């Protein structure tokens, strides 16, 4: 029979399309992994920049405006000049022209806010007004400052009357001008619309200032009004500020129209011109910080100031405290940036390891296919190029999608760092599989060659690489311990130290992993059951490439433990600092008079209150000769001792200060708990103490404690309140225990005469910069990312072996293996690596924290700069951060293995092949 010839059709389907169609799930998983990783990588620099910009703006906005405004001043022209020339220099057109010249000279990135910047003329010497109807607290006449500031109509609301204006051309000899005053000034100085104040003249009659209107600021806290608060708020001044008994007088401001400024030359006020440049907060960027400092230096004492003097007056001077504000922010940023770098290196390393793990598992899954291609003559470069094209088709669109999501979710930051981060992820994801495949198949070999953990010996190259990495990690740890992160040097090797510790631990555990398997295989073989021996044999025959899953797990667990301990350390520091400041969960205090009778009972009935300790505090009690004041705290021994035990602040027993311990009656010696400084000054002998009410008690120091809840300072004496006089024993403070106490109800019970401080409010006050909260959010994200990548690494490693396990169970079921034995087999097979990773994660996390703790200062993140300057907070291991992630790894391993066994039992092929299943 002749078979007709049929021309074979050419299969022209490209390689990439064929591979994607044959494994769509793997392509989709790779795309999802790359998209998420690229999105996180691109979002990190944008989120950090937003936090840095917000922190810089907050640092400038939170300080008083006189500290953030750049003020330029020029004196009035010399008296020997013609009057017309002197008057012309103070007229609004001239001052406005000089203001425009200054704005044209200022260089970016310092950008003045036109809505809050101001200029005008003001007297440098405050003038006394003789009007008898103006209040005189100590018999001294009130004084006023004459201010002719431009823009009053735009920044004030008219409350009564009308705004002042100038009639005709005002000169030095003008007898009367109009002015406005703020409502607060009018109230304090008894000024009304139509009032006339007479300012002493210089070589002429007094200048009459007629009040035509009362105004209120539109933006009371804006730089226009708040740079010189005297414009809106009068001040009760003392002749000698340091003497509390010095006579007092009122000082206020009269707001003249700019056209009336030349009249100030006829007074003794010595007027001068000023230009105040308020920075625009919306233009402040952290990336411009160095340039901003340079621009300020040039403006205050550099070439820009010389240009301004040429345009305005040779005697023009500039002053600002904005540079101090920027230096303070720089110090805060230097304190938190190393911690941010540690979080970035940790989460970034975990992501890289997981991407490498995914590529390694893909190469391992296709090992037979790639080995066959090499055996049929495929070149190494051609094979790598095909794999690169195959992964790039999936990774590039996914990376672009992740970048787009990050740019959309976090607007307002530079795009270049995000693009570079997403590009790095995409390039690595695209190149990981080709490089791994090329490395594994550089030599043509038998595809079925065993790669067991217990049989493959590490090569010399691997040994040298691991030793090099150990040396680098050791150097980073030593440098971090010596140098610390507080210096803000930005050394990237130091920031990578925690990750390097995890990498070294992973490599070490992979080296040690075969040893226990070999040791347990023999005893397990002598057991009656077959499951244990088979599980150990299966675990021992795992692929030698298990270093990547273990590396991913350990790095993720180390990052999660380290980041969790950082967050826990920040929280504990704030809790402890708030406790030191308040002394309990809430503090009700009256420093002037004793607390109202019955207040303690009302407080006890407030929801959430568990206990109340009433104490009397004499802050100005004087021991011995009375040259030094020491706070004396009178307490109820039982309740206060319980409070010290509960808070951990200088705990002692009830009997230590109980009056009966040292006797009773008049003249009895009271036992006392003292601070170290007081104990050093007075020793253990009895000594008298004069209380604030004039009474005297005799005390003897029996215990020394560094701190006590009632007094936050370093000096104190704690005695039994029953041994004090009737007046001195009256409670002045209530220390409330109860984290859930209702603050609003406490304030209602306390009324207005008693101050109420809550520990929760004090703790919330410690976060005074968005940069601090941003570091917390970034660390939280790093911990969450580390945990997520750990789960992903575990899933990848377990799912990679899923087909082989299902086939194994199918074969073993034909030999009589029951479903329960199949579940135990898969669980026991998965446990060695999971337990190893869990134990290694706890140990590695603990070691990393203990090794690096001396160099990790959390103070800059945990506390505001005003408190952080006197404290130091070092990192310490957090038990929950160490144990929870590791236990989750073990639980997930067992759960996934059980699910795999259940799914294998549900498959039809297993049901067809089963034999000997006794139900």
Distance between the termini: 58 Å
- The best one-word shape is flat
Estimated helix fraction = 40-55%
CA radius of gyration: 39 Å
* Relative strand content: 5-15%
Give a short account of the largest sheet.
10 strands, mixed
Description:
By secondary structure, this protein is α+β, with helices and mostly antiparallel strands. It has 3 domains: 15-48 and 330-574 and 769-913, no CATH class; 69-320, no CATH class; 591-753, no CATH class. Helices cover 52% and strands 13% of the residues. It is built from 32 helices and 22 strands. The chain has a 10-stranded mixed β-sheet. Strands 1, 2, 3, 4, 9, 10, 11 and 12 form an 8-stranded mixed β-sheet that branches. Strand 18 and strand 19 (696-704) form a beta hairpin. Helix 11 runs antiparallel to helix 20. It is flat. The two termini are 58 Å apart.
Q: How would you describe this structure in keywords?
A:
3 domains; 10-stranded mixed sheet; 8-stranded mixed sheet; 32 helices; 22 strands; flat
State the gist of this model:
It is built from 32 helices and 22 strands. It is α+β, with helices and mostly antiparallel strands and 919 residues long.
Topology:
Blueprint: H1 15-22, H2 24-62, H3 65-68, E1 70-75, H4 83-90, H5 92-105, E2 118-123, E3 127-128, E4 143-149, H6 152-155, E5 156-161, E6 176-182, H7 183-189, E7 196-199, E8 207-217, H8 223-226, E9 235-238, E10 248-255, E11 271-277, H9 289-301, H10 303-311, E12 317-319, H11 322-365, H12 367-375, H13 380-409, H14 416-440, H15 460-483, H16 492-495, H17 497-512, H18 514-525, H19 531-540, H20 547-582, E13 586-589, H21 599-604, E14 611-618, E15 622-623, E16 632-635, H22 637-647, E17 669-674, H23 676-682, E18 687-690, E19 696-704, E20 717-720, E21 733-737, H24 743-750, E22 755-758, H25 759-765, H26 770-800, H27 802-814, H28 819-852, H29 859-862, H30 865-868, H31 879-906, H32 908-913
Helix pairs in contact: 1-13, 2-11, 2-13, 2-14, 2-26, 5-10, 9-10, 11-14, 11-20, 11-26, 13-14, 15-17, 17-20, 17-28, 18-19, 19-28, 20-25, 20-26, 20-28, 20-31, 26-31, 27-31, 28-31
């Amino acid at each position: 029979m002749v078979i007709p010839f049929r021309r074979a059709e050419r299969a022209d389907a490209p390689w990439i399309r064929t591979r994607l169609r044959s494994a769509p799930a793997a392509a989709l998983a790779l795309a999802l992994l790359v998209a998420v990783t690229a999105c996180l990588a691109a979002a990190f620099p944008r989120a950090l920049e937003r936090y840095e910009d917000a922190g810089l703006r907050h640092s400038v906005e939170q300080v008083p405006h006189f500290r953030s405004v750049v003020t330029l001043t020029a004196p009035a022209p010399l008296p020997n000049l013609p009057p017309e020339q002197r008057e012309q220099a103070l007229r609004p057109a001239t001052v406005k022209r000089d203001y425009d010249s200054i704005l044209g000279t200022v260089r970016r990135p310092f950008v003045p806010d036109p809505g809050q910047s101001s200029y005008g003329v003001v007297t440098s010497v405050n003038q006394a007004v003789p009007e008898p109807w103006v209040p005189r607290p100590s018999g001294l006449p009130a004084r006023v400052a004459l201010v002719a500031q431009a823009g009053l109509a735009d920044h004030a609301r008219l409350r009564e009357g009308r705004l002042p204006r100038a009639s005709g051309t005002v000169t030095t000899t003008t007898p009367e001008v109009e002015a406005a005053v703020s409502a607060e000034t009018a109230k304090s100085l008894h000024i009304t619309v139509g009032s006339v104040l007479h300012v002493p003249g210089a070589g002429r009659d007094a200048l009459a200032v007629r009040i035509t209107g009362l105004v209120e600021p539109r933006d009371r806290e804006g730089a226009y009004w708040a740079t010189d608060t005297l414009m809106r708020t009068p001040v009760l001044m003392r002749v000698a500020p340091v003497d509390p008994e010095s006579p007092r007088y009122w000082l206020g401001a009269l707001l003249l129209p700019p056209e009336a400024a030349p009249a100030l030359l006829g007074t003794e006020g010595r007027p001068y011109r000023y230009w105040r440049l308020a920075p625009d907060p919306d233009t402040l960027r952290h990336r411009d910080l160095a340039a901003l400092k340079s621009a300020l230096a040039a403006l205050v004492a550099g070439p820009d100031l010389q240009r301004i003097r040429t345009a305005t007056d040779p005697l023009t001077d500039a002053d600002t405290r904005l540079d101090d504000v920027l230096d303070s922010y720089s110090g805060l940023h230097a304190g938190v940036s190393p911690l941010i770098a540690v979080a970035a290196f940790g989460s970034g390393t975990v992501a890289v390891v997981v991407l490498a793990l995914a590529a390694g598992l893909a190469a391992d899954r296709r090992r037979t296919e790639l080995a066959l291609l090499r055996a049929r003559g495929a070149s190494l470069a051609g094979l790598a190029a095909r794999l690169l094209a195959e992964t790039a088709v999936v990774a590039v669109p996914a990376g672009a999608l992740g970048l787009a999501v990050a740019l959309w979710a976090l607007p307002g930051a530079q795009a270049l760092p995000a693009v570079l981060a997403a590009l790095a992820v995409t390039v690595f994801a695209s190149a990981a599989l080709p490089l791994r495949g090329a490395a594994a198949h550089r030599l043509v070999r038998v595809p079925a060659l065993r790669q067991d953990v217990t049989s493959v010996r590490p090569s010399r190259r691997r040994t040298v690489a691991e030793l090099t990495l150990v040396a680098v990690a050791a150097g980073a740890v030593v440098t971090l311990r010596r140098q610390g992160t507080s210096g803000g040097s930005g050394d990237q090797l130091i920031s990578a130290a925690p990750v390097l510790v995890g990498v070294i631990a992973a490599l070490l555990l992979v080296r040690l992993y075969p040893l226990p398997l070999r040791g347990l295989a023999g005893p397990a073989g002598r057991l009656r059951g077959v499951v244990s021996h088979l599980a150990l044999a299966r675990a021992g025959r795992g692929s030698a490439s298990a270093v990547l899953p273990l590396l991913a797990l350990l790095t993720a667990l180390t990052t999660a433990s380290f980041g969790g301990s950082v967050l826990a350390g920040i929280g504990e520091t704030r809790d402890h600092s708030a406790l030191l400041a308040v002394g309990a969960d809430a503090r009700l205090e009256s420093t002037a008079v004793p607390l109202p009778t019955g207040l303690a009972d009302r407080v006890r009935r407030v929801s959430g209150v568990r206990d109340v300790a009433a104490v009397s505090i004499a802050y100005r009690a004087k021991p011995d000769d009375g040259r030094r004041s020491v706070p004396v705290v009178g307490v109820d021994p039982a309740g206060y001792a319980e409070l010290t035990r509960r808070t951990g602040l200088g705990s002692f027993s009830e009997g230590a200060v109980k009056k009966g311990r040292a006797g009773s009656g008049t003249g009895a010696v009271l036992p006392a708990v003292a601070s170290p400084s007081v104990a050093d000054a007075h020793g253990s002998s009895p000594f008298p103490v004069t209380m604030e009410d004039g009474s005297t008690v005799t005390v003897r120091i029996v215990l020394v404690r560094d701190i006590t809840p009632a007094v936050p300072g370093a000096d104190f004496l704690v005695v039994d309140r029953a041994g004090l006089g009737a007046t001195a024993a009256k409670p002045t403070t209530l220390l409330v225990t109860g984290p859930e106490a209702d603050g609003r109800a406490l304030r209602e019970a306390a009324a207005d005469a008693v101050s109420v401080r809550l520990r929760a409010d004090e703790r919330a006050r410690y976060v005074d910069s968005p940069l601090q909260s941003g570091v917390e959010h970034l660390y939280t994200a790093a911990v969450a990312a580390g945990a997520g990548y750990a789960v992903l690494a575990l899933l990848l490693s377990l799912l990679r072996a899923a087909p082989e396990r299902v086939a194994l169970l199918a074969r073993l079921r034909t030999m009589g293996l029951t479903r329960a034995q199949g579940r135990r087999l898969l669980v026991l097979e998965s446990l060695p690596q999971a337990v190893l990773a869990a134990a290694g994660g706890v140990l590695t996390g603990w070691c990393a924290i203990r090794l690096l703790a001396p160099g990790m200062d959390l103070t800059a993140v945990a506390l505001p700069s005003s408190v952080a300057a006197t404290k130091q907070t070092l990192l310490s291991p957090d038990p929950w951060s160490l144990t929870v992630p590791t236990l989750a790894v073990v639980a997930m391993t067992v759960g996934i293995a059980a699910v795999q066994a259940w799914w294998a039992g549900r498959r039809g092929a297993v049901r067809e092949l089963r034999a000997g299943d006794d139900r």
